[in-house]
Amino acid sequence: MISAVKLSTQTSAAAIQPDLEVQIAEAARFVRRHTIASIYRATSGHPGGALSCADILACLFGAELNVWPTATNDRLRDRFVLSKGHACPALYAIAAYHGFCDKADALNLRKLGSPFQGHPHVRDLPWVETSTGSLGQGFSVALGMAMGMKLQKINARAYALLGDGELQEGEVWEAAMCAAHHRLDNLCAIIDYNKLQSDATNEAIMRLEPLADKWRAFGWTVFEIDGHNIPEILSTLHLAASIHERPSVLIAHTVKGKGVPYMEGSPAWHGSVKLTRDQAADALAALGAEQHEIKELLDV
Amino acid sequence: MSDNSAPALIGTSGDSLREAFGKALTNLAGEFPKLVVLDADVAGGTGVHHFRKAHPEKFIQFGIAEQNMVAAAGGLAAVGMLPVVTGFAVFLSRAFEQARLSIAYCKRNAKIVASHPGLDVGPDGGSAQALEDIAAFRAIPGMTVISPADPKEMELATRAMLEFDGPVYMRTGRSAAKRLFGDDHRFEIGKGQIVRDGRDVTLVACGVEVARSLEAAELLETDGIDARVVNMATIKPIDAKLLKQCAAETGCMVTAEDHNVYGGLGSAVAEAVAQSHPCPIEFVGLNDTFGTSGEPDELAAHFGITAPFVAEAARRAIARKGSLQ
Which end of chain A lies in a sparser environment, N or C, as judged by fewer CB atoms within 10 Å? Predict the structure, then answer.
């Protein structure tokens, strides 16, 4: 949304303007609060993996993606696919923050009649770009978008945000092979590598390491970053866009439940979570919300 | 061909349906500038090697990776392309969920064209013979399902599929197909056709079973039974109006398909008439079993889907007339 970074020829973290970092950090804080509030109101949802990707989403929508709420049909726009569809409370929140939907509406998560389904649906909300919720598919869809834009000589990029557990789906590696083979340098994958999945750690369920080596072996340009370090995310996204002939992947090391101390690093907060009001209030307080803000988010 | 035209005659072998599809697609490329054809390393088998040769820039190789291919078709359609996914029916079925979520749920204008359906696959054997695909894809909301009967109809259906806005699953076929229809044949998605009229029983068929049903009608004629034959090339949305008319006029039906009797054409026909026009229906198809190796005609005889079996089913249906009253 803010063009300063895209126009800059600088790629180092130091070149990122401090006020942009401040704006994006504020957006990420909004995403986390909104995520907690909507999941509390829904009485179900996946907070852990939504909180872990909040900073990445804030960077994408704040400075990287060429998408606009006034032109969601623009054929020249970038495409962002939340392949880890269960993290959609965070997507709804960042979209609301940037005016793609109403902030209060987006709190109406997982309710009959609401377009804010438990997993994003493009026929309810066009700006989610494709429906996700079955791991692996969103990545392939983003690949198809990247291919289709190249065929039409559209100079835009396709981004897919994947979970780490999602990488256990075979389709991901079909797509990884395919994107490198077709030299889709307009495709950027971002892995929210919070090390936890539904039931336990990745390590316990199905080992992913050596992850960077796997992607390199598949022909991708690999960046490993701190997925909560805003300047690093921004500069790496920018750098990835300059790579020719190869797709890029950002392996973003994150903390599941980031920002809510009692959730951080615990798989218990992956999904199907029913938050009590006290838990939601504690989480919002930890995210710096004032008492009146907590009341507004949870009780109105 | 109009609904009440003279009986179609079974002609000599023409192209296989896959060849007819591949050639039709190649010839139509100029009319559909956004068309791209997706392949999983079986272009020679699906007939799209013709397309690859003529339009290499519109041909996308996905390797042996159907799940990625089908979901990527959703992405291609999302940015305005007109993707036609091609492959063997049995392997495209492994991307069922990609067709469900990334194509149908998103209402993408993407097409899935499956060659090598049913016993028509022949010697490759049971693992390769998709006998469940119509049932599976028919169950996806908003998915149109087509199974043309001869090379001419395949050519027309290919155009209709490209002109239609929405997800389509279309069956082609591996073996040389009988020529049933002339150059005046017409095809419309959602419309069945009476290809031979009759009063005693209606034989409803799709794909290779249309030719066998016409043959069955001739066998029945020698017994003095006047069988009507309906080519139901669109299985979804089914032509319920025509089926109700046939149920009313002939009082019983037989369905014939190169597919499991569960969930395919027979089920669709029964669903269409059960409420308002219940009548005896006999189902010819695979009796909830897998196929095996053999030549297509041998297999058809072995598993009971050749003309004599269709004719025998017609006699059973006629004998049951009035049993539902």
Answer: C
User: CA quadruple A234, A237, A240, A242: dihedral positive or negative?
Assistant: negative
3-state secondary structure A180-240: HHCCCCCEEEEEEECCECCCCEHHHHCCCCCHHHHHHHCCCEEEEEECCCHHHHHHHHHHH
Partner residues linked to B83 by β-bridges: B36
Residue that is written with structure tokens 């296989």 in the block: B16
Q: Using the beta-carbon criterion (under 8 Å), do A147 and B75 form an inter-chain contact?
A: yes
> B303: domain CATH number?
3.40.50.920
Domain that holds residue B161: 13-178
Q: What is the pLDDT of residue B15?
A: 87
Interface test with A, best of B85, B101, B103, B111 (most A CBs within 10 A): B101
Scanning the structure block, which residue is given the tokens 């803010």? A2
First-to-last C-alpha distance (Å) of chain B: 35
Residue A8 confidence (pLDDT): 42
Candidates B19, B66, B215, B257; catalytic one: B66
The percent of residues in chain A predicted with pLDDT above 70, rounded, is: 94
Enclosing H/E stretch for B16: strand B13-16
- Percent above pLDDT 90 for chain A: 91
A177 and B78: CB-CB below 8 Å?
no
Instruction: Identify any residues that bridge with A161 across adjacent strands, giving them in sequence order.
Output: A82, A190
**Residue ranges of domains in chain A, CATH in brackets:** 17-299 (3.40.50.970)
Note whether B79 contacts A178, CB cutoff 8 Å: no
Is there a domain that residue B255 lies in?
Answer: yes
Q: Is it true that the peptide bond before A18 is cis, omega within 30 degrees of 0?
A: no
CA distance A87 to A162: 10
Collect all residues with Cβ–Cβ distance below 8 Å to A61 and sequence separation of at least 6.
Answer: A1, A27, A67, A80, A94, A95, A97, A98
Q: Give yes or no for residue A1 having a pLDDT over 80.
A: no
SS (H, E, C) B180-239: CCCCCCCCCCCCCEEEECCCCEEEEECCCHHHHHHHHHHHHHHCCCCEEEEECCEEECCC
Please list every residue in chain B whose beta carbon sits closer than 8 Å to the beta carbon of residue A130. 74-75, 78, 102, 106
Catalytic status, residue B66:
yes
The answer to whether residue B221 is domain-embedded is: yes
pLDDT at A273: 85
So what's the pLDDT on residue A9?
44
A255/chain B closest Cα distance in angstroms: 29
Query: Has residue A161 got a pLDDT over 90?
Result: yes
pLDDT of res. B215: 98
Query: For chains A and B, what is the number of CB pairs under 8 angstroms?
Result: 108
Q: Are B62 and B38 in contact (CB under 8 A)?
A: yes
User: Are residues B161 and B198 located together in one domain of the fold?
Assistant: no
